Amino acid sequence: MQNFENSSRAIVLAAALATLAGCVTVVEPGKGDEPRFSTTAPIDPSTLPATGAIYQSAVAMTLFEDYKARRVGDILTVVLMEETNARKSADASSSREASAQLLDPVIFGRPVTSNGVPILNTDVTGSQDFNGEGEAAQSNMLEGSITVTVAEVLPNGNLVVQGEKWIRINRGEEFLQLRGIVRPVDISAENAVLSTQVADAELGYGGTGQVARASSQGWLSRFFGSVLWPL
């Protein structure tokens, strides 16, 4: 009877896991899925409000300026030079000792004994020690370049830039995403800026395909490693 119950539970558990596996769908990111990294088109002059003047600052071209990004839709190259190193360590220790002693109490003028041996003589000692040590280290590096577009020109002249790069390789794709704020004065004559000079930067790097899926945990392993699992 016991074996039958165990077999029934195993069958029910297997059926439940199979049902959950059928309900799980893997959704991989795709190009254009996140609007904040999408390419921004330049302003269409026909959409600008009529002011009665021929000159329009949003689409004006000058004869004595270089070709640095300065308007919505212009492109800008960001040179990635990201490197972070972090290390943390902690060491703690504590100790405590206590003792108590009660020697031969006297009651009614005579010590309390049993067969001549004191029975209320007490000597108690205790100690406690704790030592803890922890250490963590992390290092990241990202090099390369990505060309983005100007999405918005702020009132102070700074440029909000955004864009993404997708590279199709064998068995999958690699993508790089960037968004942030750039000062025009930091843009070089080659129309490029360092990633360390991009304010409020959002950088994302990842991949899709068989290699990316093979290097990540399955849904059941993630469940048993989550906070929902009590062990």
Record field, number of beta strands: 10
Strand content: over 45%
Structural class: mainly beta
The largest pleated sheet is described as:
6 strands, mixed
What is the end-to-end distance?
A: 30 Å
Describe the structure.
- This protein is mostly beta strands and 231 residues long.
- It has 2 domains: 35-85 and 140-224, no CATH class; 89-135, no CATH class.
- It is 14% helix and 45% strand.
- It is built from 3 helices and 10 strands, in the order αββββββββββαα.
- A 6-stranded mixed sheet has the order 9-1-6-7-8-10. Strands 2-3 form a two-stranded antiparallel sheet.
- Strand 4 (113-114) and strand 5 form a beta hairpin.
- The longest helix has 22 residues, at 2-23.
- The radius of gyration is 35 Å and the shape is elongated.
- It starts with a helix and ends in a 7-residue tail after the last helix.
